[in-house]
Structure formats: C-alpha cells, structure tokens
Amino acid sequence: MASAEPERAVEEARQALDAFERLGAIRDADAAAGLLRELGVGGRTGPKLLGELSKRELEVLRLLGYGLTNAEIAARLFISTKTVATHVGNVFAKLHVRNRAEAATFAQRYLDEDVPTG
Fold first, then answer.
1. Taking the CB of residue 57, how many other CB atoms lie within 10 A of it?
2. If we measure between CA atoms, which residue out of 40, 113, 6, 8 comes closest to residue 16?
C-alpha cells in the first residue's frame, strides 16, 4: 500500500501517530513515528513527553492552554480546585515546564483545538 499511494500512507501514519500520542500509547506512537521515517518524512508532531500525561492531565493541560484558572478548570471538569492543583503540578513536572505560561504555550503548540466539556 505504501508504495502504491505514498501520500495516503503518510497521512494515515500521521493521523495514527497523533491519535496514539493523545492516548498516551507510547509504543504505538513510536511505531507510527518509525513508519513515517521509513516513508521519508518527519515522525513526531509533538514531544514524546505528551505520552507521559494521563487523560485527565491532558484535559487540564488543554484548558491551561486557554488561560483558564484552577477554579475555572475545576468547574469545567467537575473536580475540586485542589485536584486541579495536583494535576497542574503533575503536568509541570512531566513536561518539564516551570509555570502556567510555559504550559499554556506547550498546549497551544502541541494539542488540538478541542476543549473537553467534562
């Protein structure tokens, strides 16, 4: 298939890589990135560190990207502000960012536009 329709193979591999990274499926993301390299294109659309975040941490990161406060994130996700603070701290540690501004920049650069509603 890849030799018959290389552009389609590249597009599907990129979509798979994106999905695997969002889901935190690191091994599958690595395999998709490897396929993209074999096809002669860059593999990663975002840093590998995204795979270390839990689903909830990804939701919190996405909302940080929109500049929401902990209270606003808590209301959006129906969790306590203390729980949000824990998730924010985990996001900072896992992504090696120092503050909300860096986390927001990271989110805007590497996450899609969907905003979870809770």
1. 20
2. 8
Structure-token pair, residue 84: 């949000």
Q: How far apart are CA 40 and CA 93, in angstroms?
A: 33
Interval 15-29: pLDDT, tens? 888 788 777 676 787
Do 41 and 54 lie in one domain? The reply is no
Domain of residue 98, residue span: 49-110
Q: Output the six-digit token pair for 98.
A: 């120092």
d(CA 55, CA 32): 20
State the pTM of this model: 0.59
φ, ψ for residue 104, nearest 5 deg = -65, -45
